[in-house]
Amino acid sequence: MAEQPILVTGATGKSGRRVVDQLRAKGLPVRAAARGGEHPFDWNDRATWDSALEGASAVYLVQLDGTKLVRPFVERAVAHGVRRVVLASGRGIDNPNYAKDSTGMLDGLVDSEAAVRESGLEWTISRPGWFAQNFSEGFFADSIRAGELRLPAGEGAASFVDAEDIAAVVVAALTEDGHSGQIYELSGPRAVSLTEAVATISEATGREIRYVPLSVEAYIAELVQLGLPPADAEAFADVIEPLRKGTDEYVSDGVQRALGRPPRTFAEFAKATAAAGGWPS
């Protein structure tokens, strides 16, 4: 497989670009595909699919939320002779009470998982929980930069997983035997509250950062005041619900099973990000 390129979709995203970096660190040929990436690829433009798949031995699929495009893409991959696929999915899919699905994402995720399982390819599914990188380069980064994280999450916690660990699991599944047919739920080694998370970031960065718990109503009102439509503000509040309810506190064994080592702690993530100059300032 090493002589043929490995296709990485979503190659500029949190997990995708780390998968690209780790594959290249192993000296493996990579086709980094994204709308703004090295190889042009757009889920909504099927004319870009064949050139992305041509000659590829394996594929990392980062699906487009709320769509059912993975199934026809996998069919195209089979026709191109792809032999192995790793799908980025989501934690909590098997739990109907995990979170409100106000944006209609769940149907797409379920269909995508079914598509790879039914494809006849060697398949692996990655189901990460909340990314630790949401604090440094994602959902919470602007608030960390401002020094105050204001969320309707109460005293809830999550077992935040480092995207470097997610990428390492994906790379193992793309390049090694023994991962076919596996669903890896990925988390950090223990649950971390938002209060503890911002304190850990404060220690790593030398900056004072506060967590301010809000009611759902107050959070929605703040977002609307900032210019978001009420429906979008409510959808953001729904995203936070698993933190508030504690449904993402549980620890999964996917990193240990896939890599034979424990996942990185939130403190290790915070320190490594600080050392790399990755914290917003």
Kindly list the characteristics that best describe this protein.
Rossmann fold, NAD(P)-bd_dom, NAD(P)-bd_dom_sf, alpha/beta, 12 helices, Ergot_Alk_Oxidoreductase, two-stranded parallel ribbon
Structural commentary:
InterPro entries: Ergot_Alk_Oxidoreductase, NAD(P)-bd_dom, NAD(P)-bd_dom_sf. Residues 10-176 form the NAD(P)-binding domain. The protein has helices at residues 14-25, 49-53, 70-79, 105-117, 134-137, 141-146, 163-175, 194-205, 216-225, 230-245, 254-259, 266-275; strands at residues 6-9, 30-34, 39-40, 58-62, 84-88, 122-128, 148-151, 157-158, 182-186, 192-193, 210-213. β1, α1 (14-25) and β2 form a beta-alpha-beta unit. The termini are far apart. The protein is an alpha/beta fold and 281 residues long. The chain has a domain at 6-131 and 162-187 and 249-263: 3-Layer(aba) Sandwich (Rossmann fold), CATH 3.40.50. The strands form 3 sheets. Strands 3-2-1-4-5-6-9 form a 7-stranded parallel sheet, with helices on both faces. A two-stranded parallel sheet has the order 7-11. It is globular, with a radius of gyration of 19 Å.
Largest sheet entry:
7 strands, parallel
CATH class of the domain at 6-131 and 162-187 and 249-263: Alpha Beta
General form: globular
Helix percentage: 40-55%
Strand order of the largest sheet: 3-2-1-4-5-6-9
Helix count equals 12
Name the helix and strand elements from N-terminus to C-terminus, one letter apiece: EHEEHEHEHEHHEEHEEHEHHHH
Q: Runs with pLDDT <50, length 5+?
A: none
Q: Report the mean per-residue pLDDT as an integer.
A: 94
CATH architecture grouping of the domain at 6-131 and 162-187 and 249-263: 3-Layer(aba) Sandwich
User: What radius of gyration results from the CA coordinates?
Assistant: 19 Å
How far apart are the termini? 42 Å
What name is given to the CATH topology of the domain at 6-131 and 162-187 and 249-263? Rossmann fold
The CATH homologous superfamily of the domain at 6-131 and 162-187 and 249-263? NAD(P)-binding Rossmann-like Domain
Proportion of residues in extended strands: 15-25%
| Class computed from helices, strands and strand pairing | alpha/beta
Query: How many β-strands, per DSSP?
Result: 11
InterPro entries: Ergot_Alk_Oxidoreductase, NAD(P)-bd_dom, NAD(P)-bd_dom_sf
Domain NAD(P)-binding: 10-176
